[in-house]
Amino acid sequence: MREKKMKTKIIIERHGQSEGNADRIYLGHTDFGLTAEGERQAKITAEHLKDEKIDAIYSSDLKRAYQTALPHASLRGMEIVSVPDLREMFVGDWEEKQIPDLIRDYGDEFSVRRFYVDFRYPGGESIREAMVRMNDAVTEIARANLGKTVLLVSHSAAIRALWYYISGATCPNMLDAVSVLPNAAYAVAEFDGERLIPVEYGIADHLPSKKFLA
């Protein structure tokens, strides 16, 4: 009889509204925290998932993600493991700039090109590099938690890159293939011992507002 594979369930949540989101500042590795609204969103999602059996909580080491993980950890009396490789894409020269200024100064490069999978942020990371980084980080976490359920808190573009990668999407425009998660929304994937498998994306019905802030 073939041995049944142990699967890891992976819940991947986007952080709540950050100070950068609210002020329309473009963030990659710039370390802004949550707004009061972001803290509220994080608590709502933690309450929504309170009956889910979660065995471990991991977060990007950036404040906006770690602070989103805190309500989950508080409800469960658990520790949060910080993982730098769950960070947002590094956007290089565009870090901490106002989005309207980037649209004005870079035009289509910001408004259109940055969503294409062959794009590299000026002075920063490429989307393909982020895909591999996220896949490797999440796979390592899943492999260390076989048969368990883990919660990961990460970032908009990083999660979208991961989902594109594990879905086997071929559309050159990542945004056409994978929509932007609203703040504090989440996706669910599985790890079968060999690879990550997408299950459900864009779970946001529990949130009062499903609008997203990039």
Describe the structure.
There is one protein chain. Helix content is 36%, strand content 18%. It has one domain (8-203): Phosphoglycerate mutase-like (Rossmann fold). It contains 8 helices and 8 strands; from the N terminus they run βαβαβαββαααβααββ. With 214 residues, it is α/β, with parallel strands linked by helices.
Structural class: alpha/beta
What is the first-to-last residue Cα distance? 49 Å
Largest sheet: 6 strands, mixed
Proportion in helices: 25-40%
Q: Give the overall form.
A: globular
Our count of domains comes out at: 1
Uncertain segments: none
Mind telling me which CATH architecture this is? 3-Layer(aba) Sandwich
Name the CATH superfamily assignment. Phosphoglycerate mutase-like
Please report the first level of CATH classification, the CATH class: Alpha Beta
**Percent strand:** 15-25%
Mean of all residue-level pLDDT scores: 94
Order of helices and strands: EHEHEHEEHHHEHHEE
Number of strands: 8
Separate helix tally:
8
| CATH fold category name | Rossmann fold
Using the CA coordinates, give the radius of gyration. Answer: 17 Å
Q: Strand order across the biggest sheet? A: 4-3-6-1-7-8
